[in-house]
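User: Can you fold this complex?
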Amino acid sequence: MDNHVRVRLAPSPTGSPHVGMVRTAIYNWLFARGRGGTFIVRIEDTDRGRLVEGSVDEMLESLRWLGIEWDEGPDVGGPNAPYHQSERLGDYHRAAEMLIERGAAYRGDCPPERVEAVRKEGGGYDRKRLDARETGDSGPAVVRFAMPTEGTTVLDDLIRGEVAFENGLVDDFVILKSDGFPTYHLASVVDDRSMGISHVFRGEEWLSSVPRHLKLYEALGWAPPLFAHLPQILAPDRSKLSKRHGAVSVREYREMGYLPGAMVNFLALLGWSLDDRTEVMSVDELTRAFSLERVSRSGAMFDAKKLEWMNGHYIRQTPPGDLADALLDYWRAFPAKGIAPPPEREQVVRIVPLVRERLKTLRDAAPLIGFFFQDGVEYEAAELVQRKMDAAGTKVALSRAHDALAGLDSFDEESIESALRELAGELDLKVGQLLGSIRVATTGLKVAPPLFGTLEILGRERSLAAIIEAAGRL
RNA sequence: GGCGCGUUCGUCUAGCGGCCUAGGACACCGCCCUCUCAAGGCGGAGAUCACGGGUUCGAAUCCCGUACGCGCUACCA
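Assistant: Here's the predicted assembly.
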C-alpha cells in the first residue's frame, strides 16, 4: 500500500520559487520519502501569457540547493514525457472530446458575460443557449464543463475532514481555452490520472475547486486521488505573502546567507509540528516524523525572526571545515557579499571558530572577518581611546602592549592573554580598556571576534605593526 | 453578495473531556558569564483558549449560533 505513494509538485513557471511553493514541495517530498514513494515535478505551463523565461530553471535550481530531490521531472522525462503540460496538449484534447461525446462538456463560443447572464436567469437553463449557433453571439470557442445543477459533492480531505459543496453553485468552468491550452482543472486531472498520482497535496486556495475536479474525474470515469489542502503561509499583516513584504523567493534567502538545512527545517515547521518541543530536525528526522495528521489547518505567519534564529543555530552546529566551505561557496556565488580576493580555505577554517556563534547568516561573516584579509585597517584615531582614557594614556598603553607582545616566546592565544592581562594590571587599566584599544588598532572594528585568538591568527608581525601604527597616530 | 476554510501568548505551536492554576520555541525584559559583540545559563512578563449558548459531574477539547480573518467566485494557477 505504502509503496504506491506517488505525489507531485506542480509549479507554474511564472516567476521565482515562492516559499509557499517550496513548503508544498517539502511536504510532498517528505511524504514520499517517508513511505518509499515517488516524488514528481510537473511543470504547469498552460498559461502562455504569464510564462516567465528561466523560471523553470530557477525553480529546479532552488529545489536542488535545498536538497529536495525528485524522481521524475522536466529534466529526466525525455521528449513527450508528461512533465511539461504544454507538450501534452493531445491528452487534454482527447479528454475534452471524450467529455463532449458523453455530454459532460460542451463547446461554447459566446462571451463570458453571456454565460453569466444565462446562469443568472436560473431555473435549469438550457446549455445550448450558450452556444453561438443558438444565440447568435460570437466569440472565441472554448470548451466548458457541464457542471451538474443539483446534488452535493463531498470531499474527505486528509487534513480537514469532510467538506461538502453544492453542485448548483459551481458554474460551467472552462476546461479548454480558445488558444487550445487546457485550464488547470482539466490539465491537473488528466495528468494526475496518467501519472498515477496517489495523493494531491496543494495549497488551500484549491479547496474551492475540488467539486470541479471531483466531477471531472467522475465524468471521465476515473477514480480520484486522495486530497490534502495545506494551510497558507501568511505575511506579517496576515495577508497573502508577496514581494511587498520583503523576501519571498528562496533565491533571495540563499543570497541573504541562509543555510538550506535551516530553510527546510523552518519551512517544514510552518504548518506542521512533531510535538510540543522538538524543533530542530534533520532531513532524516523530518522524513521519519512527517505525517499529515500533524499538519495544522490554520494559516501560518512567516516569522523571519525565527528563521534567523534557526539559521544561526544551524551555523553554530556546523563543523568549522564545513562552515568554511559553506562560506567559500557563498562568497563565490555572491561576490558582493564576500571577500576579495577569495581567501585560502585553510585560513578560513582557522578563523571560523572565532565567529561561528556570532553569525546569523553567512552574509554576516565578511564584515566581521574581512580585516584578516586586508593589508591595512581603517579607523578614526579617536576610536582608539577608550572610556575614561585620554590619547596620551592610550599611546602609552599601546606601546607597552607592543613591547609585551614582542617579548613573547610563543605568539599563541594563551601567552597573549596572560601577557595582556598582566600588562593591564601594571598600567592600572581595566582589561576591557586595554583590549579595546588594541582591538581597534588591529581590526579597525569596535565589534570584532575575540581578541586573543584574533591576534594569534593575525600573527606577531602584523599585530605588532598595527599596534605601532596606532600608537603613532595618537 | 454567495460558497468554502479557519480562530490557543506578538509569532510558530502543544493540547484530540478530567494530567491545564494551558506546555515549548522565536521575539521581548532582567540577572549571570564576559576583552567588544555574540553564544550560553537562569529568571520574568505575555493566552479570561474569538464571543455567546448548549451537552456533560467536568470543555481549550463535543454540538449550535455569532463575529472576525482568509480563500474561491477568470479563457490565472
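DSSP finds 19 helices and eleven strands in chain A. The first strand of chain A starts at residue 6 and ends at 9.
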